[in-house]
Design a protein that fits this description.
About 15% of the residues lie in helices and about 40% in strands. The chain is mainly β and about 230 residues long. It has a single domain, classed as YmcC-like fold, CATH 2.40.360.10. The protein is globular, with a radius of gyration of 17 Å.
């Protein structure tokens, strides 16, 4: 068994939390309850799928609902989708800390992004506690190739933080097939001392913004597709 496979086994399902509701959120502070700025368009309660209970698939945010949400929202809005567990949700901006924007569901499960690059999550299960990736934001924003060092720290099923270290090659891959008028960029990361490799893909617009991406969120959730519906 490889090193990565042993680590994967530590990510138990006992404390896995649901991503919660895909209700549109308004900006909030402190301990206040999150409110809706565009109405509750859809409820994405996919606890059963994430925790392995139940056989029926979860409700999903449809393209029509996502389009309606983008038209009605006054806050930056992202559609996040986890193909491995078959669930998605709308997440709305609730906070800004320097270059890092935090997005949340109605029940306060959060994802933090730096120009679309995943920096952390809370409440998803196997959370990304933090990530550091050197000058990756600059390479992506300026659509340049380069080599970076990436470190990612995840919470395992025993509430222990597990650290992963990678060397990543960033490449420009021409026009993106995902979003018209954007540039495709690929970040290929190999874990130090193991065979494990993952590829993050980004669609970058003329202003250097990541408008869509596919990013690794750890051994439990796998890859996530993110689409910025409103900046």
């Amino acid at each position: 068994m490889t090193q990565v496979q042993r680590r994967t086994g530590r990510f138990g399902l006992g404390k896995l939390l649901a991503l919660g509701c895909a209700t549109l959120l308004a900006a909030c502070s402190g301990g206040e309850n999150l409110s809706s700025d565009a109405g509750s368009l859809v409820r994405d309660t996919f606890a059963n799928r994430l925790s392995g209970r139940g056989n029926s698939g979860p409700a999903r945010v449809t393209p029509e609902q996502a389009q309606q949400a983008a038209a009605q929202s006054t806050q930056p809005l992202v559609l996040i989708d986890f193909p491995r567990v078959g669930s998605n949700a709308l997440i709305l901006k609730i906070a800004q800390n320097g270059p890092v924007t935090t997005f949340a569901t109605a029940s306060r499960q959060t994802v933090s992004l730096e120009n679309g690059l995943a920096r952390g999550s809370r409440g998803l299960g196997g959370d990304l506690m933090s990530a550091s990736f050197g000058n990756l934001p600059s390479l992506i924003a300026n659509r340049r190739s380069g080599t970076i060092r990436r470190e990612m720290r995840f919470l395992d099923g025993e509430d222990i933080t597990v650290r992963f270290q990678f060397t990543c090659e960033v490449q420009v891959d021409g026009p993106s097939p995902v979003v018209k008028g954007t540039t495709a960029m690929i970040e290929t990361c190999k874990e130090d001392g193991t065979w494990f490799v993952f590829n993050n893909k980004y669609a970058v617009d003329g202003r250097g913004r990541v408008v869509a991406s596919e990013q690794w969120f750890g051994n439990r959730l796998g890859m996530a597709n993110l689409k910025h519906l409103r900046f």
